[in-house]
Amino acid sequence: MHIHILGICGTFMAGVALLARAAGHAVSGCDAGVYPPMSTQLAEAGIALREGYDPEQLTEFKPDMIVVGNVMSRGRPLVEAMLDRNLPYTSGPAWLAEHVLRDRHVLAVAGTHGKTTTSSLLAWILEAAGREPGFLIGGIPANFGQSARLGRAPLFVVEADEYDTAFFDKRSKFVHYRPRTLILNNLEFDHADIFPDLAAIQRQFHHLLRTVPGAGLVVANGRDAHLAEVLAMGCWTPVERFGVGDWEARASAAPTPPPL
Fold first, then answer.
1. Side-chain-side CA neighbours of residue 178 (13 Å)
2. For a Cys-Cys bond, which of 15, 44, 51, 157 suits 136, CB 3.0-4.6 Å?
3. What contacts 24+ positions apart, CB below 8 Å, involve 24-33?
4. pLDDT at residue 194 greater than cutoff 90
5. pLDDT of residue 193
């Protein structure tokens, strides 16, 4: 199958492209800005890139499926050509959920801040434990040198973003992922371009909680009042809280090595 990705150089969509390529698909894509580090890792994976949104690329690549990034909107000639020609299309989160996450134990990291760092740490801990997790992270962790990989089943770590999915699906990306383990770092008002207030974001996080099974686990920041309000809206999964109790972790400077 040939998959063509619109908005391929975004951190999330580049990860989707790498996973699709690793799964054996032919992959191409386009973006308004094609530049490192994402363009470099995509090119190294053998993914053809086009700068700009010229509709002629649909004729050039003849894709079997188009994966539409949330940077795309109605009125763009490429989007209008896709719709006019009745070409098959989906969103990045929907493709990920259907083709990668369906049979995996998904560990999702959500919150306003720290998602990339926490996802990278979690993936590396699992790697060091010999679990060879798959992952999709909104950056390129230095330990791995790539933003996404299929890994070995069943574990898959995903950075779970609350931004909307696509022009045709205004739900948050993370509602597609159906995690069994969910980490909630923190929550405050963000993305003022799509959310009118904090309550609107909390509602999306509540929708995310509704997808976590009762046999799963929610790991939540116990000091975050906004997350506490989300959990109070309804949670059907055991919750472990961090940041409360008699212990806490603190960063400290590395000790000075003794002189040689």
1. 12
2. 15
3. 25/1, 26/1, 26/2, 27/2, 27/3, 28/2, 28/3, 28/4, 28/57, 28/61, 28/63, 29/4, 29/5, 30/4, 30/5, 30/6, 30/54, 30/57, 30/78, 31/6, 31/7, 31/71, 32/71, 33/9
4. no
5. 87
Could you tell me the pTM of the whole model? 0.91
Helix axes 198-209, 225-232, angle to 10 degrees: 50
- Cis peptide, bond prior to residue 154, ω within 30 of zero: yes
Of 79, 59, 62, nearest to 70 by C-alpha is: 79
Quote the CA–CA distance of 91 and 168 in Å, as a whole number: 9
**Residue 257 in this model has a pLDDT that exceeds 80:** no
What pLDDT score does 245 carry? 78
Rounded-to-integer distance, Cα 63 and Cα 61, Å = 5
pLDDT per residue as tens digits for the range 87-139: 999 999 999 999 999 999 999 999 999 999 999 999 999 999 999 999 999 99
Q: What percent of the chain has pLDDT over 90?
A: 87
What is the set of domains in the chain, with CATH numbers? 2-87 (3.40.50.720), 96-242 (3.40.1190.10)
Cβ–Cβ < 8 Å for 95, 16: yes
